Structures are given as structure tokens and as C-alpha cells.
Batch of 2 targets.
Target 1
Amino acid sequence: MENSYINLFDYPFEFDHSACNICNAKCCSGESGIVRFSKTELLEMSNFLKISTDTFLKDYCRKDGYTYILKEIYISFNNYKCIFLTDNRCNIYSVRPQQCRTFPYWKEFQNRKNLPFLKNECIGVKELLFDKIEEKISGLENS
Ligand code: SF4
Ligand code: SF4
């Protein structure tokens, strides 16, 4: 597998996006999850599917309190998948919500305490050791 790790400074891990080729879309399936989207994203997804926003909300979303989230399909106990996932591919990939685009770089994963959960969820994530982070900082200071 090609090693193509991305490493952002605010995060205690690096991420190999090539892992997505072999992981079977674990971040879009498995335990029940919540995918939120903005009004702009609602419009983009509806336009992409050539349907009205009302139809999009009715067919592909469910209410979560005062807002809408993407529906999930029940597969088996504790095992769901996003309504847009088919054969481990996202049917709306080019207009998927920001939440999907930014995974695993979510704010809660800046906290090293949450890394065990993330590593279990995403095989592309590799924890960075403190000395490696310091090396990078000192490299920046000296550049
Ligand atoms: S779980 Fe991680 S490796 Fe798998 S598809 Fe999602 S981001 Fe890629
Ligand atoms: S919208 Fe696409 S990327 Fe986001 S959870 Fe659903 S299938 Fe995955």
C-alpha cells in the first residue's frame, strides 16, 4: 500500500488517505452515527440529485431534534450504513457534507484521549509520538 501520510500540526496523528482504498468505508458504516449538513449543502446535494430540497429531506433524511441528519440503513444489530453508501462508495461523493470531507480531522480528535476510539474506527490513522511532533516543530523553527 502506498504511504501517503498527511500530518496537520494540531492533531496527534497522521493520516494515510490511501488506506481508504482497502477499508470498506468504515467511516460511513458500522455503529449508528450522525451526519449533519448545512443549508448550502442541502441545496448542493438536492441539486446534484435533481430533486427539490423537500424531497431530499423526506427521502434521505430524518429529524434529529430541531434539525435534519442523513438517514441510515439498518443492516444488522449495531451495524448501519449511510443511505448514500452503495458498494462501499458514496453516491454523492462530489457534494458530500463537510463533516464527511473533513474526517478524521475533527475537533474532538485533536485530543489524544480520543485516539484509541479513532484508531479503532479508521485504519488510516497512525498516532504520532511526542518526540516526532517536537522534531517537526523544531524543523519549522530552524527553517
Ligand atoms: S475509515 Fe478512515 S481509512 Fe476508512 S474510508 Fe474512512 S477515512 Fe478512509
Ligand atoms: S454522505 Fe457519503 S461520505 Fe458521507 S457518510 Fe454518507 S456515504 Fe459516507
Note: Strands lie at 5-6, 13-16, 29-30, 61-64, 67-70, 72-76, 79-82, 85-86, 89-90, 125-127.
Target 2
Amino acid sequence: MMCSTSKTPLVLDKRTFGEADDMMKMFVKEGWKDQSRDILQATFRLAGKGQLVAKYDGVVVGFVTLYDFSETNSFLNYLIVKPEHRHKGFGSAMLRKAHQLAEARTISFIATLPAVPLYERHGYVKGKFCFASYSMIMKHIPVSPGAGSKYEIKASRDVDWNQLVNYDTSYHVLSREHVLKTFCSIKGSTTKVILERGKIVGYGTIRPVLAGYLIAPLYADNTEACMVLLRSLVGVAPSNSPVVLVIPNVSQAGKILLDANKNDVRVLWEGVNMSSKDTPDIPKMNNVLAILSPAICFL
Ligand SMILES: CC(C)(COP(=O)(O)OP(=O)(O)OC[C@H]1O[C@@H](n2cnc3c(N)ncnc32)[C@H](O)[C@@H]1OP(=O)(O)O)[C@@H](O)C(=O)NCCC(=O)NCCS
């Protein structure tokens, strides 16, 4: 696809695998340390044909991915332009192309705060949730005495897969089975499930990323179960390793956790959910301590 800019045409092409290295370098520069090459590859697998690399004069200047999740919804991810090529319309050209690829589907994502005006110019509207990606050395996980013994924690392989998918779906409008399969099988991932009297009351995954370890997602029925599961997941990381979580501002457990570790928390980025049309709210966002990804979250 050719888009005319001042002199030389911008070409929006299908990404080739070698360009993943370019993307990782841009993520590091941007401070997106809650990423890894393995997460990127999983996103590429999901996006299929919806991966665009922008080249100007044959040089890579930016990327975006679009994942057609269902007949009605697509997720935009990783819109990024190299700093030296910004403000020349490349980001807008990629957004227009993604919009064409999505056809009539609603496009959703979490926008980093500085990018919100750009998306608004392209007709996207803000949703009601704010998020931030926090990196912390987790010194304090507030768990009340006796809470641990109320619950059982199992490896995901020891739990009925359909029950786990149904649990995830109770937070969303549609089943995300394909997404969960892809994300849970990312190299180095450990997924644990928390049960109370044999019933699933939460689950979460931890995996290595640039900044240390990423917990994504962590859903549980109440703050206590969130903390018990968090403690178990953090135990997978080497001690004193930074742990990253993308926490919704309405998360009850998130508020308590951030307060307990306030001297050891660093904000990597802040954002808000946006979409091209109204999307239904996630019914139990208060119980979400960490989302799965900044893209694959809404519906
Ligand atoms: C957002 C981004 C892709 C825009 O690319 P671009 O090629 O500069 O986009 P355009 O030239 O079409 O539009 C520029 C607009 O982007 C927005 N923008 C500018 N700097 C930005 C920044 N550091 N971060 C985010 N958005 C920015 C502004 O609204 C800007 O408008 P202006 O030129 O009138 O000031 C680019 O700034 C970027 O890579 N930012 C860092 C990564 C990021 O935040 N991506 C969005 C994730 S949701």
C-alpha cells in the first residue's frame, strides 16, 4: 500500500520476522519493559495478516499489529514510530490502514496517555478505565493470617481447561480461549489457578520480560484470593527480581498492593482504554489485579 507523504512514498508492508529485533529496540527506548520477544511472537501469531511495518525510503520507521479477534472486534497493539520519524504522519497512515483492515469491526486497545489526542483525531473514544504498568520489587504482599489455608493453588495443567476458560469468560463478554491458549503457552510462562472448596476463584500467569517478570493476567474473586495467588506467582521469580503488572485504577487489590510497596514502585507507562465504537464494560474490573495485555482486554 502506498501513502503519499512529502516526497518519497511510505510503504506499509507485511512484517518479516527479522523486524522483531527492530521492534524490541524501539520498546526498550520507549520504556516498554513489560515486553519480551516471546510475547511479541505470540502477538504476531494471533495477528496473522494484521501486522504492518511502515518503511520510508526502504527504512523501517514504525509498526502496528491488528488482531481480528471475532466477527465484531479487533484489537490494535504496538503502534510505534521511531522517535526520529515522528510527527510526519506515519502513525496516522498506519492507523488508517489498520482501520481498513478491520473493516466493520470495532477496534479496541489501551492508549498510552500522550497518544490519546492522536487517537481522538482518528475518531476513537476513551472508555472509563485507566491503567498503569508498574514495575516493583515486591517486598510486601498483604495476606491476612490464615488466608493461605482457605485456598488451594494448582498448576493450570491440573485443572479442567474448560472450567478455566469459563472462569476467564465470566470477566468478559466472549470467550477468549484462543488468546489464553496462545498467551499461556508463551515460553517460560507459569499459570496457576486458585480454588476455594474445589471451585476456581482466580487464576494468573507469570513470565520473564525485559524488566524482570510480568504477571499477566491475575483475576480473582476477591482481594484476599488475589493476594494469596500473587504471593504464589511471585515465588516463581528469583527473589528481588522486579515484577511488572498492568493494573486497572479500579482494582481493589491493586490499590492495597501499590500502597504497601509505595517506595519500591516505578511507573512504566499510563493509559486509558479506547475504541472506535462503544464496547461493553468488563463486568468485574474491580477484581482484576493485572490484565493479560494492553490490547486483548475489552469485551
Ligand atoms: C504515537 C505515535 C505512534 C505517533 O506516530 P507519528 O508518526 O508521530 O504520528 P503522526 O505524525 O501521524 O501524528 C503525530 C501525533 O502523535 C501524537 N504524539 C506525539 N508525540 C507523541 C509521543 N511521544 N507519544 C505518543 N503520541 C505522541 C501527537 O498527538 C502528535 O500530533 P502533533 O504532531 O500535532 O504533535 C508515536 O508518537 C510513538 O511511537 N509514540 C511512542 C509509542 C506510543 O506511545 N504508541 C502508542 C501506544 S498506544
Note: The domain at 2-109 is CATH 3.40.630.30 (Aminopeptidase).
